[in-house]
Each structure stands twice: as structure tokens, then as C-alpha cells.
Amino acid sequence: MEYIKSKIREVPDYPSKGILFYDLTTAFKDPRALHIIGWDLSQLYRDKGVTKVVGIESRGFIGGSILAFELGAGFVPARKPGKLPADTVSASYQKEYGVDTIEMHRDAIGPDDIVVLHDDVLATGGTMAAAYKLVKSMNPKKIYVNFIIELTALNGRANLPEEADVTSLIKY
């Protein structure tokens, strides 16, 4: 993990003053770091029978796609409203500055699926809590929750459902 950490750019005062942003794009562009991330993510779920990985827009698409590929699972995007072409289901959640919504195709997850929900960073947990609720409404067999980075000081796990099986590769 130290190698990956060394490739993550820390950007002060982004997106607003007082925030330290952990930019994973610098790790994603490094072939070795990207390979390590993909391998380490996949090892968490290798023997769990995962059939679908849901990646949350937009950086969750990167790790989620790699994870799905490594596991031989399907990839499902969870997107902002109006970005998916077929019939969708949605969940809304509160953000610091208002309400946001995510959507998935109505037929994306079925009752035989074992799902990993993936996003790049766990901060406050609002987006993931909404994604969890959305996937749970589709009645899969099991849901796992995964992040590359967890910002522990923000206590985002407290905003996730108690039954959520949560893992993260790196904790700050």
C-alpha cells in the first residue's frame, strides 16, 4: 500500500478551502500502482462468487471496471440522473449543499446476483448509502461495499447501513 500511497497526489483546498483532496488519477496513470490496486481489490472478493460490480460515477467506474474484469463479473454503472438510456431506478441523498440522485438500469441486478458496490473514496458516505439502498431494493443475494481510500476522520462508515460489509484498501 505504501507504493500506492506514494502515487496519490494530495491537493490542498480542493474542491473548497480547508479540504485535502486525495487525487487517485495520479495512481491510476502509474501502471504498477494501477496493477496493484486491481490485484488487491480482486483478492478481497476472489472466492465470494461475485457476479456484478457496481461502480459509482465517475471515479468508481475505474476501480469498479478493473475489479469486475479481475473477478470475471459484470460491470454496472451507477450514474447521475439522465445519463442512462433505458428504464431506471433511483435513490436520492443529502449532500452538504443540497440533494443529489443516482440511477441504475432497472434490470441491472437480479435476485441471483452477488454484488460489490465500489467507489474510489469513502468520505461522508452519503453517495454509497444511496447506492446501497438502490441495490438492496433489487434483492440480490449479497452486497459488499468497497473503497480504495477511506477518510476515517469523516466517519463515513457510520452513515452506511449497519449490515453493510465494508472494506477499503487505504485508510487516512
Give an account of the 3D structure:
- The protein has 172 residues and is of the alpha/beta class.
- 28% of the residues lie in helices and 34% in strands.
- The protein has helices at residues 2-7, 25-28, 31-45, 60-71, 126-136, and strands at 9-12, 20-23, 52-56, 74-78, 88-95, 98-105, 114-122, 142-150, 165-171.
- The strands form three sheets. Strands 4-3-7-8-9 form a five-stranded parallel sheet, sandwiched between helices. Strands 1-2 form a two-stranded antiparallel sheet.
- Strand 7, helix 5 and strand 8 form a beta-alpha-beta unit.
- The protein is globular.
Quick structural summary:
With 172 residues, this protein is α/β, with parallel strands linked by helices.
Unreliable stretches (pLDDT < 50, length at least 5) are: none
**Strand line-up in the sheet with most strands:** 4-3-7-8-9
Count the beta strands: 9
**Helix and strand succession?**
HEEHHEHEEEEHEE
Number of helices: 5
Query: Main sheet, how many strands, which sense, barrel?
Result: 5 strands, parallel
Give the overall average pLDDT.
96
What's the helical proportion of residues? 25-40%
β-strand percent reads 25-35%
For the record, give the distance between the C-alpha atoms at the N and C termini, rounded to a whole number: 12 Å
**Radius of gyration using CA atoms only:** 15 Å
Envelope shape: globular
Mind sketching the topology for me?
Layout (H helix, E strand, L loop, with lengths): L1 H6 L1 E4 L7 E4 L1 H4 L2 H15 L6 E5 L3 H12 L2 E5 L9 E8 L2 E8 L8 E9 L3 H11 L5 E9 L14 E7 L1
Parallel strand pairs: 3-4, 3-7, 7-8, 8-9
Antiparallel strand pairs: 1-2, 5-6
